[in-house]
Design brief:
alpha+beta; two-stranded antiparallel sheet; 4 strands
């Protein structure tokens, strides 16, 4: 189980990279993407996170980089989890992992993420575009955005942040990790 300092450290490290890359590529929403990193990597503590894949990115047929084969759970029918083995992308650093995420969503399949104007809309587009099989993916992402106050990064991205507020130093409160899965539990 991740400690509070490990949770804060993960957010402090990944959020600026996400904001920088989202701004560079013209995205309006970054909070939901940060929530994805939190959920998909279990605050950077998952087995896949050690390969700097914080987003559960599978290789697919076009990936020519390094990969690792791991077990994962998919929800092909609502309420039924199926364990499979699949090949996942491997990155050399967190910076590369974040860039890899934005490379992945820069395809025509995910074109609508650039026009999303709310965290919920971004999450709904992700789900509709086939990013995840979980029937609760949208709610999990939106709840994570809200509980962690991740919209402060959307404001930073748009330039509407309070000039005296540094979101990278804001502590995350009341978070516990579920050691049996990839979702955070709130107390």
């Amino acid at each position: 189980m991740a400690t509070k300092s490990e949770i804060e450290s993960f957010l402090t490290e990944i959020a600026p990279l996400m904001v920088k890359e989202a701004r560079k590529r013209g995205y309006k929403i970054v909070s939901t993407a940060i929530a994805q990193a939190i959920i998909e990597s279990n605050w950077g503590m998952s087995g896949l996170a050690k390969y700097h894949n914080y987003f559960g990115l599978k290789c697919g047929s076009k990936w020519a980089g390094k990969s690792v084969n791991m077990k994962t759970k998919e929800e092909y029918s609502v309420g039924t989890l199926t364990t499979i083995n699949d090949n996942f992308r491997v990155y050399d650093s967190m910076v590369d992992g974040v860039k890899g995420y934005y490379d992945f969503i820069s395809t025509s399949r995910y074109f609508n993420l650039k026009i999303a104007s709310t965290p919920k809309q971004y999450a709904e587009y992700l789900k509709a575009d086939g990013y995840a099989t979980s029937s609760t993916y949208v709610n999990t992402l939106v709840n994570t955005v809200n509980k962690c106050n991740l919209t402060v990064y959307d404001k930073e991205l748009s330039g509407n942040e309070d000039p005296n507020h540094n979101p990278y130093n804001e502590p995350i409160k009341n978070v516990k990790l579920n050691t049996r899965g990839n979702d955070a539990r709130w107390v």
